[in-house]
C-alpha cells in the first residue's frame, strides 16, 4: 500500500497550526506565528502522490464519524481542537499508524514515510529524526486530560510538520532569504 497522504495532510495541518496556539514557551518570538508564515515556500518537501483510494475511504469514513451531519462550524477553540484530534486519531487508526491500544506506532510511522519518500532518499534521515523527535518529546502529554480523543495523533502531526522544516536537507532548503532563516531560527529556539 502506498501511503502518501501524511505528507499531504502536513500542508493542511501546518495551516491549522499557524492559526492556533500550541503551547510553546511564553517568549514573544515563540508566540508570534507570523514568523512561520513563510515556511511553505522555504523547503521543498516531497509530495509525489496524494491519497490512495483506501486512504480516501478512511478519510471519508472519519469525516462522517467525526463531523457527522454538522451544519455549523465549531464555535470555540476547544470544539475545534476536539474535532481535529478526533479526525486525526480516526485517520491514523484507520491507516494503521496507531497500535491496538491507540498509541502512536513508531515503526509504522517511519515505514509510512519511507514509502512516501522512496524516490527522495536524502529525506530518509530527516524524516526518521522528525518522527523520533516528536515521539521523544512525548506529544501525547500535550493532550488535555479531558480530551475525547487521546492518542496524540493531532499533536504528532503538528510536531512532525514543523520538524520537517527544521530538518529540511540543505539541497531542499530552496529559499535563502531572511524570512526563511528567521522562521527556522524561531523553530529551533521554541
From TrEMBL:
Localization per Swiss-Prot or TrEMBL: Secreted
Major location category of this protein: secreted
UniProt KW keywords: Secreted, Signal
Domain of life: Eukaryota
GO cellular component: extracellular region
InterPro entries named in the record: Odorant-binding_protein
Signal peptide, first to last residue: 1-23
Family affiliation: Belongs to the PBP/GOBP family.
Annotated protein name in UniProt: Odorant-binding protein 13
Protein's organism: Halyomorpha halys (Brown marmorated stink bug)
Amino acid at each position: 500500500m502506498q501511503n502518501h497522504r501524511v505528507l499531504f495532510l502536513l500542508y493542511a495541518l501546518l495551516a491549522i497550526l499557524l492559526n492556533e496556539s500550541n503551547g510553546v514557551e511564553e517568549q514573544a518570538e515563540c508566540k508570534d506565528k507570523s514568523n512561520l508564515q513563510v515556511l511553505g515556500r522555504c523547503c521543498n518537501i516531497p509530495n509525489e502522490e496524494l491519497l490512495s483510494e483506501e486512504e480516501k475511504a478512511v478519510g471519508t469514513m472519519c469525516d462522517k464519524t467525526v463531523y457527522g451531519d454538522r451544519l455549523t462550524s465549531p464555535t470555540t477553540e476547544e470544539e475545534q481542537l476536539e474535532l481535529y484530534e478526533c479526525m486525526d486519531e480516526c485517520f491514523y487508526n484507520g491507516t494503521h499508524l496507531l497500535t491496538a491500544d491507540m498509541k502512536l506506532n513508531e515503526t509504522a510511522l517511519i515505514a509510512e514515510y519511507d514509502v512516501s519518500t522512496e524516490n527522495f532518499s536524502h529525506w530518509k534521515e530527516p524524516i526518521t529524526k522528525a518522527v523520533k523527535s516528536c515521539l521523544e518529546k512525548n506529544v501525547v502529554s500535550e493532550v488535555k486530560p479531558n480530551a475525547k480523543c487521546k492518542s496524540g495523533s493531532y499533536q504528532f502531526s503538528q510536531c512532525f510538520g514543523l520538524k520537517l522544516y527544521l530538518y529540511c536537507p540543505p539541497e531542499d532548503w530552496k529559499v535563502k532569504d531572511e524570512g526563511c532563516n528567521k522562521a527556522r531560527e524561531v523553530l529551533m529556539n521554541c
